[in-house]
Write the structure tokens for this entry.
Amino acid sequence: MIIKETCKVNWCSKQIEGFDSRIKFCLKHKNPPKNSSTRPWLHYKRERILDNKLECESCGDNYPQKFPNVDIKILSSLMDVDHIDSSIKGTIKGEQPINYQLLCKICHAIKSHDEDDYNSHKNQ
């Protein structure tokens, strides 16, 4: 029996077809990042890496061009996914690609400081 389901990434509507009900993701999202069920923005970061778009969406720094001999895993660790509107973070609307942007650590720190969002909410 062929099982037809939709990818479990909330913004992906691709069909999954197979005989194994344990398959939860389409080909693009297979082998999801660790803890991605509680951190959906990791799928966005991975999509940007797979699409070869590992540049800061604020300053435009393109790390693969800037550092062509550095492993992509290291380069991706220099980038953060930022919630454009942090007030809706954690909601269905807030956890969509339209509310994400990939920022270098410097731009992310500056944006977070400007928005007074640089401290963990747990520590405030």
